[in-house]
Amino acid sequence: MNQPGQPMFHPPSNAPGAAPLPPQTLACPWCGCPAVPGPAVQACQGCRRRFTLSAGPALDGSVVPAPFHPAAMRIALRWSIVVTYRFATLEPPGIHSGTLDPVVGIAPVDQTSIAYGDVLSIAVWRKLAVVDCIIAALVPTPIALLTLYVAISVVAKSPGAGAVFAAIGLLMGLLAVWLFRRGIVIGRRQARIVGRWASTTVPFETSAAFHDELFRRCGIARPPIP
Ligand SMILES: [Zn+2]
């Protein structure tokens, strides 16, 4: 077991005939600069952006995946990319991910699978949810400011109308705060899972369980979400 504070990384024994590591295995998920796995959030040497990088069971001999459990919870995620949908599912033996057909968005048209024991590394980072921030800035924020301004200007003449405008303004202000929080604090959480034979990147902010279950099943001590 690793002691807290020690680097969680024991370089792999180079078994003869072992496949070379995919180049992104030990790299910053933002810019690709080399990075060393560790238990805490780190800042990239190159781009200074924050992420976690954890060595998986296929890279670090001290990481042992959780035993296979056929009834393990299935966690399914689906997200859109322009015209099609992509999906990622934590199944009992591993991670499936791929593209769904563009017509009904149910049948997979391509699929890759990574067994938990074949995971070389997992990187987790958080992108700004730009759309949420733009909507917050363009819609509820100006409405809130305008209605609060109207409320202040009319309250002396008509307290009732002032109260109505103030209530609308406060609601819009709350909506703006909620959208900014969703955009900046929660953001678009990304997990890049590099396996021996395949890799996938999953936006997982819609599932609270995905991060914890992914790390638990790979046998990796769960790092904080950056
Ligand atoms: Zn970087």
How are the secondary structure elements laid out?
Layout: E1 42-43, E2 50-55, E3 75-81, E4 84-90, E5 94-100, E6 108-115, E7 119-127, H1 130-138, H2 140-154, H3 159-186, E8 188-195, E9 199-203, H4 208-218
Antiparallel strand pairs: 1-2, 2-7, 3-4, 4-5, 5-6, 7-8, 8-9
Helix pairs in contact: 1-3, 2-3
The structure holds zinc ion (ZN).
Shape annotation: elongated
What is the CATH class designation of the largest domain? Mainly Beta
How many domains is the backbone divided into?
2
Q: Name the ligand types.
A: zinc ion
Number of helices: 4
CATH fold descriptor of the largest domain: PH-domain like
Largest sheet: 5 strands, antiparallel
Named at the architecture level, the CATH assignment of the largest domain is: Roll
Average pLDDT, all residues:
89
- Backbone structural class: alpha+beta
Could you tell me how far the N terminus lies from the C terminus, measured between alpha carbons in angstroms? 23 Å
